Amino acid sequence: MAVTRRRPSSFRQAIFRFVVPLVLLGCFIYPWLHYPWTCPPPPSDGNTALSQVINTTSIERPAEVVGGGLTQADFLYLRYPQLKKQDDGAARLATFSKELEYSQLRSKNDFVVHMWRQKTPDLTQPKVLLASASAPTCEMLHGPVMAQQALINKLAYAELHTNVDVLYTLENPAKDAYQWNRPLLWLRLLKKWRSSYDWVFWVDADAIILDLGFTIPFASYKPYDIVMWGNTERAYSVGDFKSIALGLTMFKTSQFSISFVDAILDMRDKGRRLKAGDLYEQIQTAITEPPQFLNDQAAAAYLFRTVGAERWRERVHFETSYYLNGYWKDVGQRLDKIAFEREIRSKDPPFSCHFVGCSLCTGRAMSDYKQCVDYFEKSFQFAMNETARKEMAAAFREGGDAM
């Protein structure tokens, strides 16, 4: 008796029997073929230090850019949550300089506070605490590397200025609203170190000091308690909060500075008590185009425009005699020219290049992220490598002779 092969009873069964297995097989093979095998391997466990994965202070990026300025390495980094928490790589810089003595403290929230103090401080100059804080977690692969580079840059500045100590922490006191981290840390610093330092110089973690040899003229700030970068006319006349930059701000360790920061934080508390619409309406009467979410910069602009503004204006100085807070897009694209002018004409570069808005840890500024990383690396090398600057200037001279 002949055995007849049973045919599929329906088209649906045929699809289920042949097509579905092929699709599943493809889903398995495709990720394997596209897995970024050349990227750093993840730690073997959650306790492995990130420094074992990223053990260099130079940024090495894969050539291929996946999209939006993000590399395959960045996406690999997102797959491993244990990589996101920054290791305490600052401790690795304990012996960065023979001139600085390293120590650790604990904040009231049990965060490690790293300090580098001058071994032989210059007692003839005002004593300055250069303070900075980085995000406790980094979503992007290169975030911790750039954070460490920025810290190295600040330590290099202190090494050249014997009246400057450095404080660095990963604490995030405003867990519910990151935009209030700065004033909360300012307040703690001013209260804790008031008797130990004449000035607290706050420098955001995403700022690179370009002119490491520049001595800040604290003697000229004697009539003032707070020094910031900004446009006085626009801040006072129209309340343009974007004309104020608080990423690099100097606070005299005085009661006035404490009161000013307290007043900024009062705006945060007021925002919690009032309805969002009511607060926005009040702010809109004082400043132009207020941000959707109130922050320290907008709060400062509000204080300069409301009742009692003269009290604040009298003791706050907007520094414009040198480029205290350089915007990264403006400065980054001119670094080659700046290096040339410094070598040939002895023209000072901007004091800093501030990567505000780059979100170097989170990568939120997707469209600009690659440019941010490129300019950051270039700024770091500009500041830290004097030899490279001289070679660049020599190349410009040779090019001019050839023409």
Automatic annotation (TrEMBL):
- Its predominant location is Golgi
Q: Which Pfam families match?
A: Glyco_transf_34 (PF05637)
Annotated GO molecular function terms are:
glycosyltransferase activity
The UniProt keywords, alphabetically, are: Glycosyltransferase, Membrane, Transferase, Transmembrane, Transmembrane helix
Localization, UniProt: Golgi apparatus membrane
Key word Nucleotide-binding present: no
Q: How does it sit in the membrane?
A: Single-pass type II membrane protein
- Protein name, UniProt field: GT34-family glycosyltransferase
